[in-house]
Description:
With 228 residues, the chain is mostly helical. The chain has 7 helices and no strands. It has helices at 3-30, 33-55, 62-91, 98-118, 124-150, 154-173, 187-227. The N and C termini lie far apart (67 Å). 36% of the residues are buried.
Amino acid sequence: xxxxxVLLLMADVWMIYAGFVFGVRFIRRYANYFLGxxxxxxxxxxxxxxxxxxxxxxxDSPSYxxxxxxxxxSRSFGITLILVLGMLKVTHRxxxxxxxxxxxxxxxxxxxxxxxxxxxxxxxxxxxxxxxMNALASLFMFSVALRLWRVDERRHAVWVVVxxxxxxxxxxxxDFIRIPGDDENRTVFYTIAITLWALQMTVxxxxxxxxxxxxxxxxxxRAKAVAA
Length: 228
């Protein structure tokens, strides 16, 4: 097996692990279904990539169509709008209504299906749309990093900035730039991209946990002060 393929599989395994493990933790520990489901969707996407490689599926295979759906789901409203809504729970104590829940996931599902079936190859307007959505989500995540810095969670703040910049670089080059010498499957590019996505998912989980821990401590201190 080619060494670049081995690196790709290693990165994919990390992304699958981060997606399933942290996704379940988001749901069980924090009742955060926005982030939990999105993380699990990304893990399923990574698992499907492994399956596609094992069966040697071509562009007409159901697995390839599923890959396109997962890709469009996360790049449009998944790791953008849904990410922001999920993080708002720990930054602003936001509790979304059922309408917001259904609407956000509905947008991601419909967009994913439409682009997987009718939107290939990706046209320039959609590519620009992806970049704009990622840029807006990145700006929000920089504000999350600032919150972490202000509550003395500076290591997490720095990692959020690093992961966000890395993921934004992938989003900005995904549909426009090919790495010189890369193969037709863009193995080198996807190895870098999946590594950065796995890092992003891991970093964001621990950043969320740090902010949640901070709020829990503050609430506890206030309760003690009131009781006293």
